[in-house]
Amino acid sequence: MYLKVKGKYADHELQLLSELLNILDGKVVEVSSLITKSLDPESDGLTDRGEYFIGVGFSVIQQYLTDTLTLTGVSKRSAFDIGPRYSEDFTFVAVVNAAANWWKHSAEWVGQEATNGLALQTQHIVAETAESLDYPLSNLLAKLLGTNEITLSALLPNLVLWRSAVDTERRKNA
Length: 174
Known about the structure:
It is a single chain. The protein has 174 residues and is mostly helical. It has one domain (10-167). It contains seven helices and two strands. The protein has a two-stranded antiparallel sheet with strand order 1-2. Strand 1 (3-5) and strand 2 form a beta hairpin. The two termini are 17 Å apart.
């Protein structure tokens, strides 16, 4: 939840998120460095390790998205369709939300055909964005950032833009 006073935001959750993402970035950068030095990063477990830290990052961002909507009166459905766009089809936060859902639920889908709406939507967004289901979260993060130099904290500026869009939507609905 954020407060807005005289046009300025007070967003304690964003500060906490930023701090945690910086900690996770240290691990992501460490793993990326080890990957470049490894003869077989997959066998060394480095690619899975990187996916793990990135997945945790997407999940804490998802928590921030939910916290931000508290008391705004803006539904998740409409909130995830506003703000910066990743593509013509998806907003930035819709992709981030799908990545978090992928991280939390993809193990449930192994060897099964997705039948519920959340699973189908999540799989569609992740597959379309990542363009590969081999290490989809790393690929998705690289696509969101437009670079292979990936850090989770680089997502923060788009989260700030999204929060402003939510606030605008909240004022329209008030």
